[in-house]
């Protein structure tokens, strides 16, 4: 089982293949935002990788980050926990002024992933 370390929260074993946004929320109990329901539309689920950043990326993630002019962050809704990861959850419900984190993300990556070719 991969280990997920969330800065300030600890290290947790997570099911292999679980979406990172769900692992952060359900396993680490961090109030991470996912305003669009984990569909790569809003960028509120962004994280910074301290270690273990996956090399592959979905087309949806790449396009959304580029459209928003974001660098140095990744969208946790577009990442699977396939290896050990160490992240900083930078977009949280606490202090956001939002009434809730957003609709619950599905168990699988949405939209269905198309992977960026290296």
Task: Please give a structural write-up.
By secondary structure, this protein is of the alpha+beta class. The protein has one domain: Roll (Ubiquitin-like (UB roll)). Helices cover about 15% and strands about 20% of the residues. The protein is built from 2 helices and 7 strands. The protein has helices at about 20-25, 60-70; strands at about 5, 10-15, 20, 45-50, 75, 80, 85-90. The strands form 2 sheets. A 5-stranded mixed β-sheet has the order 2-1-7-4-5, covered by helices on one side. The longest helix has 10 residues, at about 60-70. The chain is globular. It starts with a strand and ends in a 29-residue tail after the last strand. The model has no long low-confidence stretch (mean pLDDT about 95).
Helices and strands in order, then pairings?
Layout: E1 3-6, E2 10-13, E3 18-19, H1 20-27, E4 46-51, H2 59-68, E5 74-75, E6 80-81, E7 85-89
Parallel strand pairs: 1-7
Antiparallel strand pairs: 1-2, 3-6, 4-5, 4-7
Estimated helix fraction: 10-25%
At the first level of CATH, what is the class? Alpha Beta
CATH topology: Ubiquitin-like (UB roll)
Range of strand content: 15-25%
- Mean pLDDT comes to 97
- Helix and strand element order: EEEHEHEEE
Structural class: alpha+beta
CATH architecture: Roll
Number of helices: 2
Radius of gyration: 13 Å
Unreliable residue stretches: none
Number of domains: 1
E-strand count: 7
What is the makeup of the main sheet? 5 strands, mixed
Distance between the termini: 27 Å
Taken from the alpha-carbon principal axes, the silhouette is globular
């Amino acid at each position: 089982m991969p280990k997920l370390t969330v800065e300030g929260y600890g290290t947790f074993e997570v099911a292999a293949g679980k979406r990172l946004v769900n692992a952060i929320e359900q396993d680490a109990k961090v109030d991470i935002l996912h305003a669009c329901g984990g569909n790569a539309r809003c960028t509120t689920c962004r994280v910074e990788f301290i270690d273990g950043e996956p090399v592959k990326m979905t087309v949806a993630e790449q396009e959304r980050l580029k459209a928003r002019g974001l660098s140095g962050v990744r969208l946790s809704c577009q990442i699977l926990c396939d290896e050990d990861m160490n992240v900083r959850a930078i977009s949280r419900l606490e202090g956001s002024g939002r009434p809730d984190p957003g609709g619950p993300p599905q168990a699988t990556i949405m939209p269905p992933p198309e992977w960026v070719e290296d």
